[in-house]
Automatic annotation (TrEMBL):
This is DJ-1/PfpI family protein. Residues 43-198 form the DJ-1/PfpI domain. The lineage of its organism: Bacteria, Pseudomonadati, Spirochaetota, Spirochaetia, Leptospirales. It comes from the Bacteria. GO terms for biological process: regulation of DNA-templated transcription. InterPro entries: Class_I_gatase-like (IPR029062), DJ-1/PfpI (IPR002818), INH-QAR (IPR052158). Pfam families: DJ-1_PfpI.
Amino acid sequence: MFGIFYTHLLANPFESKRKYLNQIPIKSQHKKPVITIISDNEFTELTDFLVPYGILKRADISELYALAPERGKVQLFPALAVEVDTSFAIFDKEHPEGADIVIVPALHNSQNPTIINWLKKQNEMGATFIGICDGVWTLAYSGLLDKREATGHWYAKDKLIKTFPNTNWTKNKRYVHDDRIITTSGVTASIPISLALIDTLAGKKKANETAILYGVESWDPNHNSDRFEFNWNHYFLATKNYLSFWNHEIIGIPIDEGMDEVSLALVADAYARTYRTKVSSIAVQTKQVKLKSGISIYPDRTNSQNDGINVKVSIPNDRKSFPLLKETLDIIQKRYGETTMEFVSLQMEFPIP
């Protein structure tokens, strides 16, 4: 049923040869752009973090770093956990001149002083920032959005306007570029902004080649944020699903070496947002599993610990991420109902009719 609902992402990317982002300055000493994707060790949004990391790593156009205040385990939300090998201090030692681009996903603690101070330091050294979804809160608390045009997740719009009145909050755009600040709408905007970044840094041919790998045919900023709104059915359903704990299910996702982290993130994120499910990663052993990009994920359980798993969801290596997300939403609708599927799509700011 989803084939007709995604025309804004299925337009021909060669209809326009213009780049959707402005030119991004790269430091003269960098042979490749130095891009960092930051995280907080305690709760970083799953798709905001893993999707751009996976897409940019596969494109191989930059020197790419996943960072955290402290190296080690990073708990993602609403599911999964990864290992981040590079701390802020390690990166600063390797690159005292700073990063070219800093990507900021949604962080549970958007006012973490360690992160905010590091962002301010990178700003002083001329970095360009990309705030994905509620990552804009961290940028705003860092003072980087003052007198800037910006966007964010549709659900946070009114609160953002009230909390940060000196920012010009824009709607109906997947992403907005103002000087050295780029901000995006909700969760799934991590896909088009990653491709738009590749387009700007390496050209449309490279962006198109990368998009094909994920089953995406357009990364333009066009978006209708006015269509996203929770109604009372969604609020009632969320409360009902959350409180009906006896009906909750554990979704087990087997993880293997070399698995595509973009597909994993999108599928796990969708299932975890039903308020009916808990997503659990399953591996052969308890040791971390290295994904396609090289980042490692912590298994929640091993194959021998299958008690309580209600449904196993496999992610085929030969499937493309974007169509797989649409199929996952279709399965959620069939299993949990149309309102639950809508509720998930609205949270991920993924357009449905």
